[in-house]
């Protein structure tokens, strides 16, 4: 009888260990490398949408109820994102490029974030002349019911002030 109990306990222990290994390797974990690649491809398209000045395509990168925070502006949410983007891309001096430096994907495969840098040229409000800026961003992504990825939080922060071209030339002499 002790032998039967011992074999039964060994079988239960073996099933528990085997079950833990299976759950940790395939069930509940996503292909994070594939998702990372997909998010980088989405950001590449997002850059193209800025180059095309396509407000509708830019707004489509955001989930319903998403939030967008730009330096010096109020937080914009949901339906307010599209009008802001339309106004932003109407700037004749606009040039914007960004790229992620880090992509993290949750093991569950339903949330991720990208953190990166950007360079941007816009019109100076006072002079209407081109102005260059640089900075950083953090975008939180959520997998949607249809399997697509949409930004749910998008926060942009400026980097160090850019030295005007005339100041750099004067200092170099």
Give short descriptive properties of this protein.
173 residues, alpha+beta, Nuclear Transport Factor 2, Chain: A, 2 domains, six-stranded mixed β-sheet, 5 helices, disordered N terminus
Topology readout:
Layout (H helix, E strand, L loop, with lengths): L1 H24 L6 H20 L3 H5 L2 E8 L6 E2 L3 H9 L5 E11 L5 E13 L6 E14 L5 E10 L6 H8 L1
Parallel strand pairs: 1-6
Antiparallel strand pairs: 1-2, 3-4, 4-5, 5-6
Give your account of this protein's structure.
- The chain has 173 residues and is α+β, with helices and mostly antiparallel strands.
- The protein folds into two domains: 1-29; 31-172, Nuclear Transport Factor 2, Chain: A.
- Helices cover 38% and strands 34% of the residues.
- The protein has five helices and six strands; from the N terminus they run αααββαββββα.
- It has helices at 2-25, 32-51, 55-59, 81-89, 165-172; strands at residues 62-69, 76-77, 95-105, 111-123, 130-143, 149-158.
- The radius of gyration is 24 Å and the shape is globular.
- Residues 1-25 have low confidence and may be disordered.
